Fold:
Amino acid sequence: MPQLTYLEAIRQGIWEEMERDERVFILGEDVGLYGGAFKVTDGFVKKFGESRVIDTPIAEAAIVGAALLGLDELDAGPETQRRLRSAFEEVRVG
Structure:
């Protein structure tokens, strides 16, 4: 088994899941054309398209809100929705 850095492992895991399941998408600050702060998502827009690799404004509450709306559209399970709502509370209360 090859040795990977944390960033390489994260990149590989996201890439593999996006190839495996077309419902998987990335939502975050500078993850699209810029490729993320550590270039983890570099090349993802070219491979998967802008509809699945989505840049967001620098506003954590907006990111969590958009994710919640997206999960509702995808009919994600209640546990996933509960975790995101909990994350939203952390951002909101800060």
